[in-house]
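SAMPLE LOG
Freezer: B-3
Tube label: C17
Construct: single chain, 599 aa
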Amino acid sequence: MTAGDRTGRGLWDRIAPAVWSLGVALLVVGPLLGPGYLLLRDAVSTPRSYPTDAALGLGDAAPRAVPQDGLLAAVSPLVDGGLVVKAILVAALWAAGWGSAVLARRLLRVSLGPQLVAATLALWNPYVAERLLQGHWSLLTGYAALPWTILAAHRIRYSVPPSTESAAGRGESARAWAALGSWLAVAGLTPTGALLAGVVAVIAVGRRRIAGALILSIAASAPWLVATALSGAGAEPSDPGGIAAFAARAEPGLGALGSLAGLGGIWNGDAVPGSRTTLFALAATLVLLAIVATGVRSVAAAGDPATRPVRRALLVLAAAAVALPALGATGWGLHIGEWLVTRVPGAGLLRDTQKYVALAMPAYTLCAAAGCRAVAGAIGKRVTDVDVLPLAATVFIVLPVITLPDLAWGVGGALRPVHYPPGWQHVAAAIDGPGDIAVLPAGMFRRFPYSGRVPVLDPAPRMLPRDVLQTGELPVRGRVVAGEGTRAREVEQALLRGGPPGELAARGIGWVLVERTTPGPLGDSANTLSHLESRYIDDDLALYRVPDPADTRAPGHAAHRSLALAAHLLWALLLLAGPLLRSIARRTKSAAPERESAP
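STRUCTURE (predicted):
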């Protein structure tokens, strides 16, 4: 093999994981790529979003969707919001696979076959399937950022010069820290993603640089931290009933521990692929754990000693990410969780414990890659005249796919675009005055004729230009978990008992929207609506105007919005810092020979 052949092969070995990961990502989300919008359980994409108080996290409810909603509000006037969400989801899945392949190459020095094994396992597992079915597209962005965050932190730990006295050293240090900040910001599209990436950054960056990683993690979390402090939602206790409702769920043939070890066990038994609803889940989990087990020893002990501490730390993190949510589903674990959410501000963020199983993914993919190489090496000692690594890699790739066949093509077709009726745009255009919006029927979830059979979050808060009041109450496992805040609940009760319009106006309501094609309680709201001016009506929607709504905003509302916007701007700058500094460095490097050769 010539030097050119080796160079070409090395280049292909680096490109192939990216191409492979993109192909697998497209296979997973395939149906969603057609025209239309993502509207599935918690996922809501709309043509246009608005920078309302709720989008900035300043509403009554806890800021669980910032800076996600703020980003869409900023971008959707320029690019269709549905297209933006699809692009982010595809990019996230692509990055998850590609990043896992690069992580295996950097930490284990494995060849192409094991890299593809790592990429496949990162994309083709129950965690990805269940979170897609639950509509957690932005959480998957945090999931995808984990391997890249580890790589950035590892670079700081081992590659950044200890002394930055020279200009080159300072530049290298700045680029490394900016890259870490960018990946933390990518993960920080949701609060949970920020926590996930912050944990792996602290683990991988080394003790001497933990302070810097923590500062960047806080900056990446600024939108929801600032919103929590300003809105006061974080100071309010969460419903302790949410701990049991959102606890990890045991799958058939598996306890909670086994389900979590298999990267499954989401609380919502309806957001699960069909193959995980039978005893086939037991077989699939055993296969996954067998794949991981083949590489644990290599990840823990073999390879470059410089990367061994990070690899061992990731193994410990994976064990904790499985064990702690399993303990949280036990009787005493539930009691501890209930105590936390009623006494510790912001602890409600931890109630869906299965989300944190994502922290096991980096170690699982490393073990799969190492196991593929180890198995091929063991067989190769007996079959010396055949390169068995490609065959071993093929088997390691095929096994996760055949044990979760319904992840393909939109998780069995569940992930498909919907088309909103034109009335939504007419309603948005008709809202031309002050006041927040109340919605009917009561509740946050809808079943529209165009949205399919499963309940979906009401798109009104992201579709309309004024704040839409929602109670935050969630029906989970036959119970209702209360939300934060009281104004939305008071408004909803006033409508259901047919209260006078003045009662709504006193609470800042200027509009009432009736979504006419979805089931739900209406109570005696017809009495209230009969006294209101109709502004728009069709077969799907009816909009009414409430006269003279009171301004219920706090005296410091404008200052609060400015601070929330500043926090979002900080997040955006952090997001862009890494690519910008890298681009500048490349331009400077390419321009240097020209300057040197100039007369």
